Amino acid sequence: MNSAFVFVDEFLPGIRWDAKYATWDNFTGKPVDGYVANRIVGTRALCDALADAQQEARSAGFGLLLWDAYRPQRAVECFLRWSARSENGRTKRRHYPNIDRSQMIEKGYVAARSGHSRGSAVDLTLYHLSTGELARMGGDHDLMDPISHHGAAGVPVAEAGNRRLLCSIMEKCGFTRYDSEWWHYTLRDEPFPDTYFDFPIG
Asked: 13-27 pLDDT, tens per residue?
């Protein structure tokens, strides 16, 4: 692993994670190329900013749960191959109920060159420190649908408030949001803005 990268759980004590692409619980329906272990990796700069975000969240009674950060380029290529295959319906209802999988790229939910592969993007949510339960966000991770957009119509008041809180925390701590996905944030000052890495996670 590049020396500028670390395992996030080793850098941030108490952080929670569930690396979805290392499991069967993701939109492809199986572990993704490059995710050898259920760990989250990111640049040291990303982790520094996440430490600030973790503190901000804690002051509001929340913790952070990470789903993804650094993503090997081979995983991105796996997504692209998957999107070109014929539909089998296994994950459509949960992850892309209103589009064809072939539309994921044009709709902006899957990218041929992902910011995650630069090591300074993160997918995450909030959880309640008092109970450990995830905060309700009006839609799950990787729900490729307009309801996942920031400011989407039809999101209940409490869930919309949780989205705004997460956004406020992340933007205060040096991140920019991705308008189509309430869970996706990128470090404003990336250490590798033009480099796409491909080392495996494990």
From this structure: 889 999 999 999 999
CATH value of 5-187 in 3.30.1380.10, 3.30.200.20, 3.30.470.20, 3.10.50.40: 3.30.1380.10
**Lookup result for tokens 């492809």:** 28
Q: Which tens digit of pLDDT belongs to each residue from 148-196? A: 999 999 999 999 999 999 999 999 999 999 999 999 999 999 999 999 9
Write down the pTM of the prediction.
0.95
Q: Which residues, 6+ apart, have CB-to-CB distance to 146 below 8 Å? A: 152
With CA atoms as reference, report the closest residue to 124 among 73, 155, 150, 163.
163
Q: Which of 10, 56, 181, 190 is catalytic?
A: 181
Contact 33, 75 (CB under 8 A): yes
181 is catalytic: yes
